[in-house]
Automatic annotation (TrEMBL):
Name of the molecule in the record: 3-oxoacid CoA-transferase subunit B
Molecular-function GO terms, alphabetical: succinyl-CoA:3-oxo-acid CoA-transferase activity
Keyword Nucleotide-binding: no
UniProt keyword annotations, A-Z: Transferase
Matching SUPFAM superfamilies: NagB/RpiA/CoA transferase-like
Catalytic activity, EC: 2.8.3.5
Record Pfam families: CoA_trans
């Protein structure tokens, strides 16, 4: 199965030349490290930067240059900085081609829950609700199961929803799945992971058609 970097590396294959991409907090922030050098991509962070680069090497961090998760980042040549109102105007105006988010749960109909666990302290929902309401192409980066081994790909989300019927694709440590009308369609398996293992780890309806290839990383 994949680690967090492996998930990010696979998602990076979904990023196309000329895309404007928003990277959410957590695993999605790693995607910028794995995008091909021969394409031009503009990464946006909702705290007000367009042209975000990979994470800095140790000792080269700039404490004034951070992403929405308060991690230090780099900026590519030509990067621009702006206030949150302008940043969310870009998001709400549908100027982002691809949104990559983490999630606590995803339902088989594409619902996503990623901002709150009742009874636990949270910093706030951030830009997640604006992003899922405005984006047409949403990829979720997540672990297939929680720490208790329970599936996070469900028939119905149990946590408060961030968005309804909005997720298009999910990349986990076990698989790549597309959300279609019937449920989760299995597209690829992580290296060394069997279809049976994915079935066992998926509560929602899993659609398997033909031979399922392994991911190429």
């Amino acid at each position: 199965m994949l680690d967090k970097n492996g998930i990010a590396k696979r998602i990076a294959q979904e990023v196309k030349n000329g895309f404007y991409v928003n990277l959410g907090i957590g695993i999605p922030t790693l995607v910028a490290n794995f995008v091909r050098d021969d394409i031009e991509v503009e990464f946006q962070s909702e705290n007000g930067i367009l042209g975000m680069g990979a994470f800095p090497f140790e000792g080269e961090e700039d404490a004034d240059l951070i992403n929405a998760g308060k991690q230090t980042i780099t900026a590519l040549p030509g990067a621009s900085y702006f206030d949150s109102a302008t940043s969310f105007g870009m998001i709400r105006g549908k100027h982002v081609d691809l949104t990559i988010l983490g999630a606590m749960e995803v339902a088989e109909n594409g619902d996503i829950a990623n901002w709150k666990i009742p009874g636990k302290m949270v910093k706030g929902m951030g830009g997640a609700m604006d992003l899922v309401a405005s984006a047409e192409n949403i990829i979720v980066a997540m672990m297939h199961t929680n720490k208790a081994g329970e599936s996070k790909l469900l028939k119905k989300c149990s946590l408060p929803l961030t968005g309804v019927g909005c997720v298009t694709k999910i990349v986990t440590n076990l698989a790549v799945l597309e959300v279609i009308e019937e449920g989760f369609k299995l597209i690829e398996r992580a290296p060394g992971v069997s279809v049976e293992e994915i079935q066992k780890a998926t509560e929602g309806n899993l659609i398997i058609e033909g031979e399922i290839p392994e991911m190429e990383l």
